[in-house]
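Table S2 (text version). Query chain:
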Amino acid sequence: MRALLAFLVCTLALLTAHGYAQPLDDEGKISAFEASDEAYVKNQYELIQDIVNSEFAIRFNGDKAHDLALLQRLIDSGVVKSDQRLELQAMGVVLGKTLAQEFELRWVVFRDSVGRSRALQIDETKRVVFPMTMISRRLEVDARTNVQEIYAKVSGIIEYTRANHVLY
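Corresponding structure-token output:
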């Protein structure tokens, strides 16, 4: 019973957080990436690339299967821990680059009452996904984190949005 309750609490937290996708409401706004955003994403990518290179003598290379497996290896080996938010979000940059490449998404800035976030916009819709926090939010609440499952869920959201011409 206790395990079921913990599972339900984690599931609810994961689905309601800026985890997978969020439609814009009246106060949510999308704007173009600025030079500082580009630099931040580049620095984050270099940070996680350096960690992977020093720990495993390998690099992210843009191949989806390779890069997702390498992200999972970082988690499973404990190289990046749940309290290392900067590194976890750098892992989210790799996840985002992989999604952007496969689905031809563009990085944008999303602003709402919670604050400012870097996100990927699905086509010209008002729907965005938040890859930079998809891994970190799950590990920070000690949720079981499977990078391939996260990728599959986000892929499903993107495909559903496109197939159903979701505009919100």
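Notes on Table S2: The chain has six helices and five strands. Residues 1-19 have pLDDT under 50 and may be disordered.
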